Amino acid sequence: MEQALEIAGTLIGLLYLWLEYRASIYLWIAGIVMPAVYIFVYYEAGLYADFGINIYYLGAAVYGWVMWRYGAFLRRTILRRKSCAPQRGEDKRTKGQKTELPITHIPKHYLSPLAAVFVVAFVGIARILIEFTDSNVPWLDSFTTALSIIGMWMLARKYVEQWWVWIAVDAVSAGLYIYKELHFTAALYALYTIIAIFGYFKWKRMMEQAD
C-alpha cells in the first residue's frame, strides 16, 4: 500500500513539476492532491517533519491559487487606494492579464525576514523532532522542511528566485529519500533538481518577455 501511494505521489509530482515549469495556475490543483497522498507516505517512513509540511502544503496550495488568479488585481487595488490617483490611458490587457499575478523578482526587503523565518523554523523543527519523535535524520529533515516553507511562499507570490530554493531542497531531499529507501520519491526529487535549474531560466525568459 505504501509503495502504491509513493508511485501515485510520484506521478502526480511529475504533473505538478510540468505545470510549475510552464507557470500554469493548474499546478495548484496537483498541489492539493500530491500532499494529501504524501501525508501517509511520510508518516509511515518516519519523516515527521515532511509529514507536517505536507499539511502546510495543502493550505499553501489554496493561498497560491488565490494569489496567482487574483494577485495582480488585489495589488493594483491596494496601490490605487494608497495613491488615490486615477489611471491614465487605455488598458489593453485581457481580463486574465489584469487579474493574474506576474512573475517578478523578490523584493530585497523580504530577504532578511525570510532568512529569520528559515533559521527559526530550522532550529525549532529539529528540536521538536529530536525531543518528541524517533527520527534518525532530524537536522536534514528539518532543513528541507524549513526551506520548503520559504519556497512555497515564494512560489505563491510568483517570485522567479523560488527556483533557487527548490534546487537546494530537491538535491538534499533526493539523498535523504535514498537513505530512507523511498526510491521512487528519490528519483522524482533527483529529476526535480535538474528541471528546477531549467525552470529558473524558463521563468526568467517569461518574465523578461512580459516586460
Automatic annotation (TrEMBL):
One of its GO terms (molecular function) is nicotinamide riboside transmembrane transporter activity. GO terms for cellular component: plasma membrane. It is found in: Cell membrane. It comes from the Bacteria. The chain crosses the membrane at residues 25-43, 55-72, 110-130, 186-203. The lineage of its organism: Bacteria, Pseudomonadati, Bacteroidota, Bacteroidia, Bacteroidales. Belongs to the nicotinamide ribonucleoside (NR) uptake permease (TC 4.B.1) family. The keyword Transmembrane helix applies. Keywords: Cell membrane, Membrane, Transmembrane, Transmembrane helix, Transport. Required for nicotinamide riboside transport across the inner membrane. It is a multi-pass membrane protein. InterPro entries: NMN_transpt_PnuC. This is Nicotinamide riboside transporter PnuC.
